[in-house]
Design a protein that fits this description.
Layout lengths: L2 H13 L3 E3 L5 E3 L3 H13 L2 H4 L5 E4 L12 E7 L16 E7 L2 E7 L10 H4 L1 H9 L3 E10 L9 E9 L27 H14 L3 E8 L8 H10 L3 E3 L3 H9 L3 E11 L10 H25 L8
Parallel strand pairs: 3-6, 3-7, 7-11, 8-9, 9-10
Antiparallel strand pairs: 1-2, 4-5, 5-6, 7-10, 8-11
Length: 311
């Protein structure tokens, strides 16, 4: 193992609190074992040491928004299963990590996410994002499919997430903290970096795409919300509702990453359209809006300062 790879492995171990001690003989204390193991598997599978390659930007794709990974140049595709990460089971989520370059940056695209409602605990839901953090990615961009709570929104709209409401009833940071990765009580005042939000708006204007901005409320799912719940969520200040994104954002901010996210409004929430909700509608509208969203993401990635957004 050369010095570059050895230093990377040591860093991964420190950040995930995989520490060998002499107490009661030789043993290991593992706070984030799945993250450590997946990161090491990725180092080997993608031959990161030989390539001297590490991600600058990580991207998570949502329901019906696949295909962005095909824009990555010189891609290395690795199925989640090869890394010991949970495989996505929802239709429209490929379940692979794509490494390469885009817009002059090293990117890692998580093509498909796993959801809390699939039966995973929160540590597994955010494991892939944490792998990106320990490998050095400083910026996380996310997309999702969401229902409109704001009656002024329409299916096909894009919404930059300004803030979120965690209505999932749990938190991915629950349990023992990995101090090397982040603090016990991370601040969430600016969960979504204002500078990245501004870049999303600039990208939309330059590409002639209307971009809204609002608050995203996350529920655990998988059932869609009732009309009464939607009225309550609107009273709380939500503009859109979905079943993802918030866990990854919390984990990323805990690890010190800068975050930006966009919702594709795929349907009007329950009670606002007069019809019933279906996942087919989500996929169909997401696919139609995907091309614009993909162009916006590539525009933003190409203009991110080295190391993330500078403050």
């Amino acid at each position: 193992m050369d010095d570059w790879t050895r230093n990377l492995v040591d860093r991964i171990g420190r950040l995930t609190s995989v520490i060998e001690t002499g107490e009661f003989g030789r043993r290991e204390r593992r706070v984030l074992p799945e993250v450590f193991n997946a990161a090491m598997d990725l180092v080997n599978a993608a031959k990161l040491g030989q390539r001297r390659w590490l991600p600058d930007v990580a991207v998570v794709l949502g329901s019906g928004l696949s295909g962005f990974e095909d824009r990555v140049r010189d891609p290395v595709r690795i199925p989640y299963g090869r890394l010991g990460l949970p495989q996505a089971t929802v239709e429209g989520h490929r379940g692979e990590m794509v490494l390469g370059t885009l817009g002059g940056r090293n990117v890692a695209v998580l093509a498909g996410r796993v959801h809390y409602y699939e039966g995973h605990d929160m540590a597994r839901v955010v494991a892939a994002v944490r792998v990106m953090a320990v490998l050095g990615a400083r910026t996380l961009l996310l997309s999702n499919a969401a229902g409109a709570v704001n009656p002024d929104f329409r299916p096909g709209d894009l919404m930059v997430i300004r803030d979120h409401i965690n209505w999932m009833g749990t938190n991915p940071l629950r349990g023992e903290n990995a101090e090397g990765l982040g603090p016990r009580f991370p601040d969430m005042t600016e969960a979504y970096k204002p500078e990245i939000r501004a870049l999303f708006h600039k990208a939309a204007r330059s590409l002639g795409v209307e971009m809204r901005e609002g608050v995203y409320l996350a529920v655990s799912g998988p059932s869609y919300e009732t009309p009464a719940e939607i009225r309550a969520f609107r009273a709380l200040g939500a503009d859109a509702v979905g079943m993802s994104t918030v866990p990854e954002v919390i984990a990323a901010r805990h690890a010190g990453m800068w975050v930006g996210a966009v919702s594709c409004i795929t349907n009007m929430a329950a009670g606002l359209s007069g019809g019933l909700l279906s996942h087919d509608e989500v996929k169909e509208v997401g696919a139609r809006s995907g091309r614009s969203l993909h162009a916006i993401f590539e525009w933003v990635i190409s203009r991110l300062p080295k190391g993330g957004v500078e403050t």
